[in-house]
Design brief:
By secondary structure, this protein is of the alpha+beta class. It is 15% helix and 41% strand. It is built from eight helices and 41 strands. The strands form eleven sheets. It has an eight-stranded mixed β-sheet, with no helix packed on it. An eight-stranded mixed β-sheet has the order 30-31-29-28-35-39-38-37. Helix 3 (270-284) packs across helix 5 (313-326). The protein starts with 13 loop residues before the first strand and ends with a strand.
Length: 618
Amino acid sequence: MKHKVFYFNFFLLILFSTPLFSIVPDSEVLKYISRCELHGYMLTQIDTIVIQVNNRNGEKYSDISIPYSKISKIAEIDGWIIDPNGKKVRTLKKSEIDDQSASSGSELFWDVYIKSFQLTHTVYPYKVYYTYKINRTELISIANWDPIINTHISTKDARLYIKYPKGYAIKKYIRDAQLVKADTIKNTVELEFASSYNKMLTQQLYSLPFDDIKPIVIVVPSQFFYGVEGCADTWVTYGDWFLNLNKDLLDLPETEKKVVTDLINNITDTREKIKILYHYMQDHTRYINVSIGVGGHKSYPASYVSENKYGDCKALTTYMMALLNFVGIKGYYTLINASIQPENIIEEIPYPQFNHVILCVPLLKDTIWIENTASSIPFGYLSSFIQNRKALFVDKGSSHIINTPKLGRNDAIVRKINFICKTSEDVEINALFYFKGYEFEKFNSINTYYNKRDQDEILRSYLPLVNYEVLDWQLRKLDRDSSKIYLESKIKISNYLKPLGADYYFNTLSILNITFENPNERVLPLQIPFPLNSIDSVSYNLSDNLIVKRLPESISIKTEFGGYNLSTMINGNRFQVFKRLMIYPAIYPLERYRDFYSFIKQVKEAEKKVIVLSNKQM
């Protein structure tokens, strides 16, 4: 039921405190009223919004966009402007309403559209009123509502009114809103909810997803119709609806069946069969967004992908399921939210809370998770976007919420770097990085999808040095199913050794490459989604005229938030610096952030340690 002024910044995540003095905002929502009335399986929704524009900077918030689709049609739109004296000075004309596709250009088919218009005036402050009616012919939820018209401006007063027939079973979930009225008048139940949005949201490092912290009201009917009839009483019944919507989609063309038969001929191991078919799917299909009709939930058939060689996550997962099904291997749809920061699932209300689907294949002693949308992902690898979160395992008569596996503490960034200090001004570096976990995914994508020029630009900017020249680099992956990727580089660096009287000094390479906010600036809980694990082994080879004068003392920091170690070893003209930093995955409430930051501060202090060299006395 979203009608947002089209700034879809739904992942902006931080609240900041209201100043003690009064500042007039550029713009603000004075009223937002949404009225929903249910008639059988059809829903009528009328939204009325009043936006006050206080100055020219606020005019951008009078650009209004209303999304709609074939099953969620706009019946009417009205709009007008009230000047500072309370006089209506302009009325929206039909000719001023633009109608276009909401496609970003990355979709092949997309049946979501936008009606947009602008209402502006030259005398401030003025009020923009607009109202519109939407008729929904199919629905899963009566309301999935929040008081936010735009994340950048406040909403003073928001109201949600719902009417539905007496005896009609519903479930509701409320966060930071109030149910202010619940009446039964004759044969109709009427609900009124109130909320507001008075603190703006913006991004902060590793904070909770916006959808987990914003005020919301969710109202879901027990019985619904979306493509087919369904029931939202439990996740079992919701899963059965999803399967019913997506039934009879696993047929493959005869030519495809012959290819599959030839591929696994003489292969007896089940896991090996799955791997072969996964590679085949990766090599012969590509991801593209296809969303029409009930495209948000219904997949195209496997035969469509077989013939066209493309599909969205649903279609590609259905295709992979069909390949496995043909050889007698059972795979299961698994609905999930794909995002770096795992989003919470409201388990008590079965309704659409997922934006992605993968395949789960349980074996006798193992479970294989299959991501079907990328040719670069190793077989069985669960990426950072879908690890460590709740998902819906869809199985006829027994669908249930599960937890996906976590990235492990061994999924680390490992740097093995060899410095050759020929003179105080001439330093050569041979660096070997190998990446696992999130950094593996990033560099694996760079290695697969970027051209050589873009790779060169990215990799040169990645190296943790200044005043350097990259002589050579190479990205290397052992095989397609390796979850580790290597970056080798040869570097020449100038002025690395800094004069200190008659000596020279330099800092050790920093292993902490994340900047966390000061506790006074932090206002949201902290969510570390996976282990942040880095390991350094750095060797320094000195020329005959240089000797070590001082090395950092060993340091060991152990806390509930993570750990840090620094140690050194010297052997003649060669010394080594070893470091390890581990930040544990966890969710910390705001009141614990200061303690977490104390650990980070200890690491930052340790990272300031320097190495001092001297010229050897002849």
